[in-house]
Write a structure and sequence with these properties.
Layout: H1 13-16, H2 21-40, H3 42-69, H4 74-118, H5 122-129, H6 131-158, H7 166-200
Helix pairs in contact: 2-3, 2-4, 2-5, 3-4, 3-7, 6-7
Length: about 210
């Protein structure tokens, strides 16, 4: 069931004949606008990046644990264990946060598809396509993903035996992977929304949306 702070689903087909058509169209326009912002709004992009930042923070502690262990000093082993525990303590809530966001996306997706299939209204449908928001997601995610790939492969290519430790390389590559995976998720979401909008508002079935 959708959460209470999300718009309700469309009324069943057998009840629509009893409802005011103009009121139903107004509800469709309002709910599609709200759901579109929740699916592909700027705040949703910031939330994705915030989750990525928490993952990066957790991985930073894990990286410090790896670097501390590599010193082979008894006191460093202790600090490494502490860093590892803190890192895992940050990564686990970040994983739950990511799972919650994915579940919320599925709820929004179902509601967006249901309201889009209810009727057709060109001004409302054009706003839901959100080409500006899609382009913002596309460009921002591409830039983040490209930077993440550069960090990942650049750190591996520039590593020199004796100058860089395995822990340092693993730490830097891990941060880069977090960045480019985040960028990849954003690119996929923008592309999926565009494909759905084309199908949903040009006579095709509205079966999926980012």
């Amino acid at each position: 069931m959708p959460r209470r702070d999300l718009p309700p689903p469309p009324p069943p087909a057998h009840l629509r004949a009893w409802l005011d058509e103009h009121a139903l169209q107004a509800d469709r326009a309002r709910f599609l606008s709200e759901l579109g912002r929740r699916s592909l709004g700027f705040g949703r992009l910031l939330l994705l990046w915030a989750v990525s930042a928490v993952f990066a923070l957790g991985w930073s502690f894990v990286g410090m644990a790896l670097m501390a262990i590599e010193t082979h000093d008894p006191l460093s082993y202790l600090f490494g264990l502490i860093f590892a525990v803190v890192g895992v303590g940050v990564l686990i809530p970040a994983g739950f946060w990511f799972a919650w966001g994915a579940k919320r996306d599925r709820q929004v997706r179902r509601l967006l598809c249901a309201w889009a299939e209810l009727d057709r209204d060109p001004p409302t449908d054009a706003a839901v396509r959100a080409p500006g928001r899609s382009l913002t997601w596309l460009l921002a995610s591409f830039a983040l993903g490209a930077f993440g790939l550069w960090v990942t492969f650049g750190s591996a290519a520039s590593a020199r035996p004796g100058a860089d430790t395995y822990g340092e390389v693993a730490y830097t590559m891990g941060l880069g992977m977090i960045l480019w995976i985040t960028g990849l998720l954003g690119l996929g979401k923008a592309g999926a929304h565009y494909r759905w909008a084309v199908r949903a508002f040009r006579g095709g079935p509205a079966r999926g949306v980012a």
